[in-house]
Design goal:
Helix content is 42%, strand content 12%. By secondary structure, the chain is of the alpha+beta class. Strands 2-1-3-14-6 form a five-stranded mixed β-sheet. A three-stranded antiparallel β-sheet has the order 11-8-12. Strands 4-5 form a two-stranded antiparallel sheet. α1 crosses α14 and α3 packs antiparallel against α14. The N and C termini lie far apart (55 Å). Pfam families: SBP_bac_1 (PF01547).
Length: 438
Amino acid sequence: MPFFKKAGGVVIALSLLLAGCGANSKENSGGSPESSASGSAATSSNEKVNLRMTWWGNQKRADLTMQVIELFENKYPNVSIASEFMAQDVYADKIKTQMAGRSEPDLIVMGNDYIDYAARGVLVDLTPYVGNEIQIGHFEDSFINPGRMDGKLFGLNLGNNGVGLIYNKTMIGDAGISLPESMDWVQLEEFGKELAAKLGKGKYAFADQSSLNEYFELYLRQQGKSLNADGKVGFEPQDAANWFAMWERFRKQGIIPPAEISAAHVELSAETSTLTEGVTAMVFRYLNQLPAFQDAVQDELDLITPPKGDESGKDGLWLHPGQYITISANSKYPKEAALFANFMINDPEATQILGSDRGISISSTVREALKPTLSASQLKMFEYFENVIAKADPMPKAMPTGDWNGALGKAAMKVAFAKATPEEAGKEVYEAALKTLK
């Protein structure tokens, strides 16, 4: 296939670069990548091992992941991995159902909700495999530590990520509007009003994303607050009320779509976004999604930083692990599962195949080697990461699910459909946070 022919030169370059980085790597129990890449950590038995792996995402992600699975199976012929994947909006519920029935796959890709499962004891602590099946000593601690909880390692970071505003550069340019390089929330509102007026009927400046936990977290961080402040609620009901009131104001001014349109779009991916339908010009998303959004439209897209705090001027951004690969505590073959998890982040050919689909590689060596192969949208993503996200603060403490799960979204919809005032919704969200962190 042409893809593999194109990849070959970079794979060789990656192999040489990774082999040469051992002398400069940290010397700790995590070791260096060359042992896993060369296969010295291979399974010592010829026993046939059958694993299952699950993840969320589109067909492109599935194709890339299955290529890596095939590559791994060729290197370790006694191991086979059956794959399962599904859309993001149904993935979390599926995992919960499988966990409840003890029928979950061996290898599970998770987001920050891994902490809920780790706390319940249903994920494998990967620490005993570090230095053997798993090699992480050459990675920065800031890239590995988000997968740790209570001194144990439960997930391997599959790629760095961060948040930003994906915007339709062509649409905004055709409207005759200049997009400022940086805005606070007041300036964003003014820009939104001007843009919506220029775009005309049926077009809106932004998507309604009042339901997104990450966006609300950003808003709070800009004020020195957070969702989860070391196990305690880090905001007040009025903070949430102010958040909902701002979006209600956007809605009334025609900056964002009416409730009926917004309710029909999940705004979690390119497949479910008003931006890719040409209805809105800007959405708040993770930077690794830019290529998928770009592939879905003819217009040129780009990235800009989200609005800053009105008074503080803080951006509130953080370095966000894209996804984690975790292992079920019910797996009969945790050693082999750990070997594959390591393969995903260390094998030169595997990292070349996966590229930046799940985020920017946690290896600077891999990032540099990948750059010559990147598309225009991928280059924009890398530049945004290096210029903005790489300099951001550590990731905030994640909010456990529990009563919080869906609370912000439900309250946001009540406000959008005039079933609750911003103050009522703010109180509802705060009480859900209290119950979750009690």
